[in-house]
Design a protein that fits this description.
The protein is of the alpha/beta class and about 290 residues long. The chain has 2 domains: about 60 residues, Helicase, Ruva Protein, domain 3 (Orthogonal Bundle), CATH 1.10.8.10; about 190 residues, Vaccinia Virus protein VP39 (Rossmann fold), CATH 3.40.50. The chain contains 11 helices and 9 strands. The strands form 2 sheets. It has a 7-stranded mixed β-sheet with strand order 5-4-3-6-7-9-8, sandwiched between helices. A two-stranded antiparallel ribbon has the order 1-2. Strand 4, helix 8 and strand 5 form a beta-alpha-beta unit. The longest helix has 15 residues. It is elongated, with a radius of gyration of 21 Å.
Amino acid sequence: MPSTEGTRAVAGAGLSRGKAVREAAEALAGSSSSPRLDAELLLTDLLGIPYSHLFAYPERCLAPGQAAAFRERIARRAAGEPAAYILGYCGFRGLDLAVTPAVLVPRPETEHVVEQAIARLPHGGKLLDPGTGCGAIALAVAAERPDARVTATERCPEARAVAAENRDRLGLAGRVALHACDWADGLPEGPFDVIAGNPPYVETGAPEWADGALAHEPEAALAAGTDGLAAIRSLLPPAVAALARGSGTLILEHGAAQGPAVRRLLAASGLTGVATGHDLSGQERVSHGRRP
């Protein structure tokens, strides 16, 4: 984006950066949990300026076209569209990942999947990320563990294109293999030391559907039946079969109330050492088990 640091109109001659952010934060108060941050991110991206310049030069004014474009962005955010879709990217473990409505916006909870995967992946080990979406898990592991051999799968062509774009832009094309398949059709040949994924786990009738919180994200990557466990059930047989015997670990993100049910499913699939980790809010979020 072109920088507008040359625009030095005095306050009052137009819409200043400071006033633009204040007005936008007020407009987003009822639709965003972080209205001011959203406003600041959307404005700095639009203007192509460092974040610090909002505070250093709040009196500098937006050109009429910039003001109109910013208000259009805020209207989209106020209607519930995720800021990441408006920006076209999302930060995840230090990586800037391109995102589109074809993929889920990576959540902070998924960082716990990456942490557990890295902790359990032996040197030179093989990791599989089934249903990779934008590539968040696979690319984060590959970036942080240069020794790892990483494979990702994605059935949706549009989502797979986003993952490939992220992989190539981050310089990981030679280290992350991307396959066009679904786990129901058979996973890539293992054995894998770690399989780590974020399968769909939102149940039919969940409040998120009714309040529109998920309206802009791909339903196929979210919806998982009446109890939210349909995708996990279908993934378990091929995933367990693809794990290395004696040490291969399966790591799955799930809903905050699904820990007990997921642990039962993992144990019933023959995995041992089944346990669940908590997210930063103290809720059960990521469960794992090991193939004996």
